[in-house]
Amino acid sequence: MNINRPRGTNDILPSESYKWQQVEAKVRDICYRYGYQEIRTPIFEHTELFERGIGETTDIVEKEMYTFVDRGDRSITLRPEGTAPVVRAFIENNLYAGQLPAKLYYMGPMFRYEKPQAGRYRQFTQFGVEAIGSMDPVLDVEMITLPIELYKACGLAGFEVHINSLGCPKCRSEYRNQLQAMLAAKADQFCESCQSRINRNPLRVLDCKSPKCRELLKDIPSIQDYLCPECREHFDQVTTSLDQLGINYVVDPHLVRGFDYYTKTVFGILVPTLGAQNAIGGGGRYDGLVEEIGGKSMPAVGFAVGMERLLLALAQENIAFNEPKAAGYVAHFGGKTKQAAVKLVHDLRQAGLWVEMDYLDRSLKAQMKSADKLQSQWVIMIGEDELAQNLVKIRWMNTGNEEQVALDQVAEYLASKREG
Predict the structure, then answer these.
(1) pLDDT at 259 over 80
(2) pLDDT tens per residue, range 275-291
(3) 3-state secondary structure the chain
(4) What local confidence, expressed as pLDDT, does residue 419 receive?
(5) pLDDT at residue 420 above 60?
(6) What value, to the nearest 5°, has the Cα angle with vertex 168 and ends 234 and 291?
(7) Stretch 339-353: mean pLDDT, rounded?
(8) What is the pTM of this model?
(9) Regarding predicted confidence, which is higher, 204 or 5?
(10) Is the pLDDT of residue 319 over 80?
(11) C-alpha angle 244/249/252, rounded to 5°?
């Protein structure tokens, strides 16, 4: 019986992994320019971290976490998201004693038991950024502009920025009570998931993707109408700065995000062509999370990008990547010519080149086919006659031209060609 990968996981093969590497390089470059430093947290944490951080009534905690009891009788969960672990590490390692805001980013696997679909897996890769220690609306704007920079650097164009404010606990509580009463009046008309949310977490009803539920929500008042003066001023400063930077956005009163820890600004970046699951990133402010997890009261803001969803969006827009190509190939005829090839390949790799050779003792014709498949720029052929004269023959694959070069001068010769 064959053993296949678990449902909801994916093998990233060499034909795709180079695309990931190029996007990841852009991530690291942009984070460097914005002053964010990488943090790496454990893949599993104590379950309580996510119950307290994300919220016990969220879909993630109730339905989607991979949780188990370890041999020490501790409840452990594979991380379903990256913000709570980063905040835990911020508190545990006293990063609040350093320069604030602490500007951190992470990139790695997350785990949620969801229904697998295009761009959504049970093991997925998330890139996220967190800034902890400042209430400044300018940081909210920075959290929106940074992923926009990433998408543009990748060549993505067809995305929309949606923003909203969830207010603070005080003004959101008033809106929550009003919303709950309005939803309860027609509860039996909503989908089963929304019916279960009305009493426990009514704001999550606003995020339902069901066409029927969205129609029922058309007359629901906006949370924007309930913002207190402080939250209104904060949101106005965010939109003013976005306008100043020339960033287009949509104020979306139904945007609530899936975690309980969000306060004030929330945002999502959508690609309409991706269908119902059209979000490729999002985030917002979470001013109460540090205290909720056990630290001192401290404001924070962040965002996360699903890498699979981003790569799917890039594929739909036919964004080109630089496919890796071998610099060259060293062909041999066995015996002493193979020994010479081994030494030459080693020297050229030491010089920083991707060079391949034959390991199957195939004919020259078969080796040339391999070189062609690797899109090699050149092939070095080491024959017995040439080796006796300390020479090699170099064929340039794009022109077919051939030259003889001294064996001990090949590296210098190829370097001169690159410089020329």
Answers:
(1) no
(2) 767 889 999 999 999 99
(3) CCCCCCCCCCCCCHHHHHHHHHHHHHHHHHHHHHCCEECCCCCEEEHHHHHHHHCCCCHHHHHHCCEEECCCCCEEEECCCCHHHHHHHHHHCCHHHCCCCEEEEEEEEEECCCCCECCECCEEEEEEEEEECCCCHHHHHHHHHHHHHHHHHHCCCCCEEEEEECCCHHHHHHHHHHHHHHHHCCHHHCCHHHHHHHCCCHHHHHHCCCHHHHHHCCCCCCHHHHCCHHHHHHHHHHHHHHHHCCCCCEECCCCCCCCCCCEEEEEEEECHHHCCCCEEEEEEECCCHHHHHCCCCCCEEEEEEEHHHHHHHHHHCCCCCCCCCCCEEEECCCHHHHHHHHHHHHHHHHCCCCEEECCCCCCHHHHHHHHHHCCCCEEEECCHHHHHCCEEEEEECCCCCEEEEEHHHHHHHHHHHHHC
(4) 61
(5) no
(6) 110
(7) 96
(8) 0.89
(9) 5
(10) yes
(11) 135
232 token code pair: 């209104």
Mean pLDDT, residues 192-210 taken together: 80
> How far is the C-alpha of 31 from the C-alpha of 125, rounded, in Å?
17
DSSP bridge pairs for 130:
104, 302
Q: What percent of the chain has pLDDT over 90?
A: 74
- Encoded tokens for 398: 């794009």
| Interatomic CA distance for residues 252 and 162, integer angstroms | 6
Mean pLDDT of 268-277: 83
Q: Which residues contact 116 (CB under 8 A, 6 or more apart)?
A: 7, 8, 122
